[in-house]
Design a protein that fits this description.
Number of strands: 8
Radius of gyration: 14 Å
Oligomer: single chain
Number of helices: 1
CATH class: Mainly Beta
Strand content: 35-45%
Amino acid sequence: MAEIQFSIGLTEKVVPDIRLTKSRSGDSGTATFYFEDPDILNAKQTEEITGMYLVDEEGEIVTREVKGKFVNGKARFIEAMLKINSQDEWDRFMRFMERYGKDNGLEFTKS
């Protein structure tokens, strides 16, 4: 089981577009998540967005860098950025993504 949450305990069902970058040295990188019309922005949802939580059997990976994007005054998108600062963090993130991808039918494509 691997899932993404914006408020602890509420699983986001919308699967994001995810872009990865990694430094040439491999010491750092970023994962940027783009969610279009995520459940957390639904008018019926009253939970506060407290960050993005990547949850699996190993635990949680957390980022507080979460931004809402508006179209015609209505919240439509969420962009979240996870900074990865070491090879160990990169390996942990990739293990989460393998589980999340398997659960959601995603595949990795290198550009």
